[in-house]
Structure formats: C-alpha cells, structure tokens
Amino acid sequence: MMVDVVKSSDGMDKVILKEPRGSTVQVHLFGGQVTSWKNERAEELLFMSSKAIFKPPKAIRGGIPVCFPQFSNIGTLEQHGFARNRFWSIDPDPPPLPASSIKKAVIDLLLKPNEDDLRIWPHIFELRLRVALAPGGDLTLTSRVRNTDSKPLTFAFAFHTYLSVSDISEVRVEGLETLDYLDNLSERERFTEQGDALTFDSEVDRIYLSTPTKIAIIDHEKKRTFVLKKDGLPDAVVWNPWEKRAKAITDLGDDDYKHMLCVEAAAIGKPITLKPGEEWKGRQELSAVPSSYFSGQLDPGRVLNG
Ligand SMILES: O=P(O)(O)OC[C@H]1O[C@H](O)[C@H](O)[C@@H](O)[C@@H]1O
Q1: Which of 163, 197, 246, 292 is the most exposed place for a label (fewest CB within 10 A)?
Q2: Tens-place pLDDT, residues 116-125
Q3: Distance between CA 123 and CA 229 in Å, rounded?
Q4: What's the superkingdom here (predicted)?
Q5: What pLDDT sits at residue 288?
Q6: Is 184 a pocket residue for ligand 1 (Cβ < 6 Å)?
Q7: Residues 147-184, buried b or exposed e (16+ Cβ, 10 A)?
Q8: C-alpha span between 261 and 266 (Å, rounded)
C-alpha cells in the first residue's frame, strides 16, 4: 500500500493512493475531491470533463466532488455548498482504522470552517473524509461530520460521483425501480419511477428518495458494471445533462455528456441534524465488476442481491 503526497506550486496539491495490484486513486486537497480512480489495467473509471478547470476557487468538473452543507440550490448558500470550493487539509493523526481496513491505502482529509464560512453559515463543525482503496481496487469514501458547536447543526450531503461510461445510450441503472423521486427538471415535483430499469435518451436530474443500499450501473458496451453501495446516505441523485444543457456548461465539452453519468449517494430528502457534540457518518463504496465475472452473462439481480 502506498500513499504519496504530491506538492504543486499552483496550489493543487494531491494525494495518490496505490495498492499492490496496481489500482490507483488521486485526491486533490482542493475540494477534498477524488479526481481519478484507475483499475489495475490503468483504465480510468471516473469521468473528468475534457474542459475541466483545475484552478481554485471553482470545483473541478468530474471525479467525486463533495456537496456539503447544501445540495443544489436548496438553501441560501452557493450551489452544492462550499466544501467543494475549499482547501482541505491532511489529518496527520487520524483515528485508528477498523481491522477490516488494515490492508487498504487510506488518507484522511479534514475541513473546518474559516472566517468567511462562519459569516455565511455560522456553525463550527469538523468534516472528515476518509478515502480508502482496497486491494483489488474498491474505493470507499467515508464522511464524518462532527458538531463541535454549542447549537444544533443541520445539513445535506452528497458524493457527487461522475462515473465514466462508454456511451450513455447503452447504460442501464438498476436498483431505483418503483421508487419515488423529486424531479429537478420540474421544480422538484414528486413522481414514482415505473418498474423498468433506468435508461437514458434525454436530460435526467432526479433525487431518488430512500433507496436500497445497492445500485448497479451497467455499461453494456464496456461490459462493465459499477456497484455502488451506501450507508447513512438514504437518497441517490442521478444526473446527465444531455446535449443542450451540456453546451451551456462552460467547463464541460459538448460531447462529454455521452461519456458520463452521475450517480450520487446523498442525504437530501431528510437533512441531517446533529446536537452539539454529535457525529454523523455516511459511506459510499464503489466497485467496478467486469461482466465476464458473471460467466459472460450480466445479471444485475445477482449484483444487487448478492
Ligand atoms: O454544475 P454543478 O453546480 O456542479 O451541478 C451539477 C449538477 O449537480 C447535481 O447532479 C444536480 O442535481 C444538478 O441539478 C446539477 O446541474
């Protein structure tokens, strides 16, 4: 297991995690943002925009930005909250790892409010992000928010995960059937998903409420399935901007929408409230499974129930 800190003169310091079979993860201290996750064949599993800007103070378009303490424009703060636009620090003395994590490459990042943050959001807190790469390449993100203030703290949270897909028209998402969702494209009106798996042929921007803990994202062309497991994050956002909106997003290439899908473990429908001294924990675990793993037969039922 290797953890390297790479200093950079442009302020974009990053951490590289490596496991013996060759998978790697890259985390930028700006935004506490995972910007790359590669399997042992060095294939990138996360989407990064062809026009991504690696320059503060704007969040990087791709990878896994953290939305905290607000999701989208649901609140008075900047879109998706300020955490993704701040410099985080490395915790040199993190709490001990559970025995099951001993073989992982791990880094703990911390975000505490600065004076500007306190002016716009008067709450003292500590947000810890643990990024862990397991032998074999599974990527686990664990966030902990501790209320270190003397009054209650209420927030929303999302791991805004941009998955890399070969062709969005060939992608299917399983695990969200029959659930209720808020449609961001119609003023967050509540709808119920029909029985079929989710496929894509136009813009999608939905907050699925109280989802199962496993979601499968099946990329037919690549013969690859991403399995997203989550804990403490009841909701799941699914977003693809499609052609027209992609063109309006300055740091997204015109055709980039074809190769990305955001599936985001989140707590939005019921914001989290912590009493003074309390701590909340949310976890998102990602694995990429080749379809040949299921003897050439993609069987998302097995992925979801296994
Ligand atoms: O452009 P950003 O602020 O990064 O937001 C990108 C997208 O994030 C989420 O997925 C929201 O549901 C979308 O409504 C939003 O467009």
Answers
A1: 292
A2: 999 999 999 9
A3: 30
A4: Eukaryota
A5: 97
A6: yes
A7: bbbeeebebbbbbbbbbbbeebeebbbbbbeebebbeb
A8: 15
Q: Which structural domains are found in the chain, ordered by start?
A: 2-291 (2.70.98.10)
Residue with tokens 């099951």: 100
Report how far Cα 59 is from the mean position of its chain's Cα atoms.
13
Q: For 146, how many CA atoms within 13 A lie in the half-sphere containing its CB?
A: 8
Amino acid at 227: V
Is the C-beta atom of 235 inside 6 A of ligand 1? Answer: no
- pTM, rounded to two decimals: 0.95
State the pLDDT at residue 297.
44
Residues whose CB falls within 8 Å of the CB of residue 167, separated by 6 or more in sequence, listed in order: 221, 258, 259
Q: How many residues does the chain have?
A: 306
In single-letter form, the type of residue at position 83 comes to: A
Residue nearest to atom 5 of ligand 1 (CA): 72
pLDDT at 264 over 80: yes
